[in-house]
């Protein structure tokens, strides 16, 4: 009897390989982020950027694959958060410090630290509000997500190396820029969540054409394509804010309507009870 019980417990604790795949991808993103730091130390800036982009792609895949394989777990969620802090907080902070901010000593280090801290705070806030967010807010992030913040923070490197504008390497340019992106990450500005983006059926074909153009751009001119995507993403903030506020007003109106209906029903029930007592 005891042996059979131990066997059942062993089966319950064992995991199939499919359930490990999302965690393997998350570990890959973590390794890519740390490898970006190694490239930055050796001043291989393009390779450092590539490593961060790879980490962002893997980060986008792990959650999707976990849902497809029904392999979501608390362990995976915690591992993903820790990986994001390192790959999209610590790694970009160190890269931008080695590239530019180290020229101004302690002030530059403080700017890099500020970025890392804001990245960690942004992820902590995201995890703590998952269960309490209103339904309409599921299509948005509050603040810039960590992968987007990492890529935006490294935008001066991309502009300087690809377009030859060395002005953007000056620490008094990169410092305020990194601080600004850090503040955007912990801000309450709603930004679009591409994971839950709904595409109307009539836009399927144009969307596929756009994805094809994007793939061609990344294959032929990856850095210029990333520059364009970065500016498009920054330009989407006013639209995401307006869309969020519109949905928020609609949700509030529906809530007030439901509350008014409940009040009317209670008044009607009270008046019916009073009438019966009088009869």
Describe it.
Strands 1-2 form a two-stranded antiparallel sheet. It contains 11 helices and 2 strands. The longest helix has 42 residues, at 237-278. It has helices at 2-13, 17-41, 45-68, 74-99, 106-128, 146-153, 155-163, 171-186, 204-220, 222-235, 237-278, and strands at 140-142, 190-192. Helix 4 packs parallel to helix 6 (146-153) and helix 7 (155-163) crosses helix 10 (222-235). The protein has 279 residues and is an all-alpha fold. The N and C termini lie far apart (70 Å).
Cα(first) to Cα(last) distance is 70 Å
Q: How many strands, what sense, and barrel or not for the largest sheet?
A: 2 strands, antiparallel
Shape: globular
Helical amount among residues, as a percent range? over 70%
Strand order in space, largest sheet: 1-2
Mean pLDDT, to the nearest integer, reads 80
Extended strand count: 2
Beta fraction of the residues? Answer: under 5%
Q: SSE order, as H and E?
A: HHHHHEHHHEHHH
Number of helices: 11
Category by helix and strand content: mainly alpha
Q: What does the radius of gyration come to?
A: 25 Å
Catalogue the unreliable spans. 1-12
Question: How would the blueprint of this fold be written?
Answer:
Elements: H1 2-13, H2 17-41, H3 45-68, H4 74-99, H5 106-128, E1 140-142, H6 146-153, H7 155-163, H8 171-186, E2 190-192, H9 204-220, H10 222-235, H11 237-278
Antiparallel strand pairs: 1-2
């Amino acid at each position: 009897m005891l042996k059979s019980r131990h066997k059942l417990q062993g089966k319950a604790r064992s995991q199939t390989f499919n359930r490990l795949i999302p965690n393997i991808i998350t570990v890959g993103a973590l390794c890519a982020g740390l490898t970006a730091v190694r490239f930055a130390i050796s001043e291989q800036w393009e390779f450092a950027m590539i490593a961060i982009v790879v980490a962002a792609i893997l980060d986008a895949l792990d959650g999707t694959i976990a849902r497809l394989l029904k392999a979501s777990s608390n362990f995976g969620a915690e591992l993903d958060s820790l990986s994001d802090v390192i790959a999209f907080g610590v790694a970009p902070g160190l890269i931008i410090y080695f590239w530019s901010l180290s020229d101004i000593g302690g002030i530059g280090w403080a700017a890099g630290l500020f970025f890392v801290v804001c990245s960690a705070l942004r992820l902590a806030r995201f995890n703590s509000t998952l269960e309490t967010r209103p339904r309409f807010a599921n299509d948005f992030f509050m603040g810039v997500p960590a992968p987007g913040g990492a890529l935006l923070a490294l935008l001066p490197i991309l502009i300087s190396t690809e377009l030859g504008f060395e002005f953007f390497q000056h620490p008094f340019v990169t410092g305020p820029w990194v601080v600004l992106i850090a503040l955007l990450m912990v801000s309450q500005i709603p930004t679009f969540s591409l994971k839950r983006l709904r595409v109307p059926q009539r836009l399927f074909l144009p969307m596929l054409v756009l994805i094809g153009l994007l793939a061609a751009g990344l294959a032929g001119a990856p850095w210029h394509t990333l520059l364009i995507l970065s500016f498009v993403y920054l330009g989407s903030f006013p639209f995401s804010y307006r869309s969020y506020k519109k949905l928020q007003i609609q949700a509030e109106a529906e809530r007030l309507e439901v509350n008014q209906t409940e009040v009317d029903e209670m008044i009607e029930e009270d008046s019916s009870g009073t009438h019966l007592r009088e009869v």
